[in-house]
Write a structure and sequence with these properties.
The chain is of the alpha+beta class and 279 residues long. The protein is built from six helices and ten strands. It is 26% helix and 30% strand.
Length: 279
């Protein structure tokens, strides 16, 4: 019986449901089941980043926005290949390494500063509209698998095409070990030797032209500022600069206190001869 009350003849045929033309519902269920099974068999490479002692601050001035974040410690941990379904279901046990407390006065391991608005234009013209990202990494040790680097591309993909983000990345006293975990072309081939990189005093930046430039910190930046005058957030010598500024501030305060004391003494001398004198 149809919903309008008319009977259904035995010889009539019912149209297949939408999306099942040319096949039965059993075929559709089989296809969905196969897709789910394929997803359960897929695996991805997982990299865990453990941050300790994280501090963040934001400043708003009209149309300008500045946000700065720093972490005292950064511990990367390679978890290898994990099944996608287990990750989505939360079945994979993820244990971060123990984070040792940073010593007092130690420089942060990671600093990040994002500036957006018209004030960011002093870095480059493109930064006025797209903003400027500055990252500083110091004293980190990491071991990465080649499969992890291969999966970074899809992680950074987007549906929209955007202008290149102006960035500046500083790296100090950092070592990176790359291990090849890909399948061997020949079963009898020896295991590949890990490749170790040591980076110290390296700057990777991208400005108006969209090109990534790798240079030492002592060289001149393409924006016209000397590399030695860059405001490194956690570079070597940063602690010494802070102590120098604190010393200068203390000397300035002492000089100001002495000037105020001399001013009071002179006013007292003037009042002896002219009590009605005022400044």
């Amino acid at each position: 019986m149809r919903p309008n009350g008319t009977p259904v003849h035995s010889g009539s045929r019912v149209s297949p449901a939408a999306g099942t033309e040319g096949g039965s519902s059993a075929d559709l269920s089989s296809s969905l089941s196969q897709s789910t099974e394929d997803l359960s068999q897929d695996s991805v490479s997982v990299l865990l980043l453990s941050l300790g002692g994280v501090t963040s601050v934001m400043e708003l001035r009209g149309e300008d926005v500045v946000m700065a974040t720093e972490a005292q410690s950064l511990t990367p941990k390679q978890l290898g290949n994990q099944r996608v379904m287990e990750l989505l279901a939360g079945l994979t046990v993820v244990q971060g390494g123990s984070l040792s407390p940073a010593s007092p006065g130690a420089l942060p391991a990671v600093c990040m500063r994002v500036e957006a608005g018209p004030s960011a234009g002093h870095y480059c013209a493109a930064a006025e509209g797209a903003g400027f990202l500055e990252v500083c990494v110091q004293g980190c040790r990491a071991e990465l698998l080649a499969s992890t680097l291969n999966t970074i591309g899809p992680f950074l993909e987007d549906e929209l095409t955007a202008d290149p983000q102006p960035i500046r990345l500083r790296i100090y006293n950092t070592s990176l070990t790359l291990k090849d975990d890909g399948p061997r072309a020949y079963p009898t081939a020896p295991q590949p030797v890990p490749v170790a990189f040591y980076l110290d005093g390296v700057v990777l930046e991208r400005l108006d032209d969209g090109r990534l430039t790798l240079r030492p910190t002592a060289s001149q930046s393409r924006d016209g500022d000397a590399g030695g005058q860059d405001k490194a957030c956690c570079g070597p010598g940063g602690e010494g600069k802070v102590e120098s500024l604190q010393s200068q501030l203390s000397e300035t305060r002492s000089a100001l206190a002495a000037a105020l004391s001399e001013r009071e003494r002179l006013l007292q001398e003037i009042h002896k001869y002219n009590p009605a004198f005022t400044l």
